Amino acid sequence: MPGGQTLLTVRNVTLLEQGQTVVANWSLDENLQSCVHFYRLVYWDDFSEVPKDVYMTNTSYTIPNVVPCSKYNVKVSAWTSPTQEGPVATAAYTTIAKPSAQPHIFNLVVDKHAAEMVWHLPEYHCNRCPISKVIVDATPQFKLTIPYQDSPLRPDVVINLTNLTESTVYKCDVYLQNNAGLSPPVHVLIQTHYEPTPPPPTSPTPAPTPPTPPPTSPTPAPTPPTPAPTPPPTPAPAPPAPNPLNPPRPLSPH
After folding, report:
1. What are the tens digits of pLDDT across the range 102-112?
2. Using alpha carbons only, how large is the chain's radius of gyration in Å?
3. What does the domain layout of the chain look like in residue ranges?
4. Where are the beta strands (DSSP E) in the chain?
5. What is the distance between the alpha carbons of residues 101 and 122, in angstroms, rounded to a whole number?
6. Of 23, 161, 167, 175, which residue is 20 to 30 A from 83 by alpha carbon distance?
7. What gap in Å lies between CA 120 and CA 156, rounded to an integer?
8. Inter-residue contact 99 to 131 (CB < 8 Å)
9. Beta-carbon count within 10 A of 144 CB
10. Which residue intervals make up region (Disordered) (predicted)?
11. Which pairing describes strands 84-85 and 21-27: parallel, antiparallel, or unpaired?
């Protein structure tokens, strides 16, 4: 190496976001590039458990699958032999904010005048831009904005809709809002229940009245037998008429 130089210094490390990647670039004195055995790049974000260590011979590396609103830290060094590392150059970059992905409806319970929705939110490691609001835009009737306190755990969100009209279809668009804007909406249809008004109570139905038998005529008393007709009395025989030829004799005195 010229002048007995044994250590090479990396300069001008830049990080540029492209799509879902971050491209790291750096430079070295051109006349010393041939002295580099390899470059070592170490990178991590604020939530990485273990930094990633990569080796290459060119002066560029693309970090894949970067997460919105995450800070990425990079260290680059030039090695002139497998055991000789030059000074480490560092850089950091925070990825730009992007709207959240859609939430996912987990449960829906609908009643006559109310509905309860339970929503799963996108996992924190997929987009770390803090969610600030859950918005329900329903037709007809209302728009509901629910403040949300974000955290890496991102617990489910329970939304209660009240004062709904029975037997009505509500078309709901549900959004998440973060510092980059609104997520794509999720469309949900809610059909409230219908309960007919019960009729007023009625008096108990009386037992049916047995039919009245037709009136019966009284049984006539038996008719006494007709007595046999009484024969007329036999007239006494008339005294014989006097015989003029034989007049009666006068009775003799006693």
Report:
1. 999 999 999 99
2. 61
3. 2-94, 104-191
4. 11-18, 21-27, 38-45, 52-56, 60-63, 71-81, 84-85, 89-94, 104-110, 115-120, 131-139, 142-147, 157-161, 169-178, 181-182, 186-191
5. 6
6. 23
7. 5
8. no
9. 15
10. 191-254
11. unpaired
Is 121 in contact with 154 (CB distance < 8 Å)?
A: yes
Contacts of 248 (CB under 8 A, 6+ apart): 242
* Among the listed residues 30, 37, 24, 27, the one whose alpha carbon sits nearest the alpha carbon of residue 75: 24
Strands 104-110, 11-18: pairing is unpaired
* 207 token code pair: 């037992």
What integer pLDDT is reported at residue 249 of this predicted model? 60
Q: How far apart are CA 176 and CA 146, in angstroms?
A: 10
| 23 within 8 A of 72, measured Cβ to Cβ | no
Q: Which residue has the tokens 């997929």?
A: 126
Say yes or no: domain 2-94 is CATH 3.40.50.1170. no
Q: How far apart are the first and last CA of the chain?
A: 226
Q: What dotted CATH number matches 104-191?
A: 2.60.40.10
Which is nearest to 13 in space by CA: 29, 25, 28, 30?
Answer: 25
pLDDT value, residue 86? 93
The reply to whether the predicted model has a pTM over 0.70 is: no
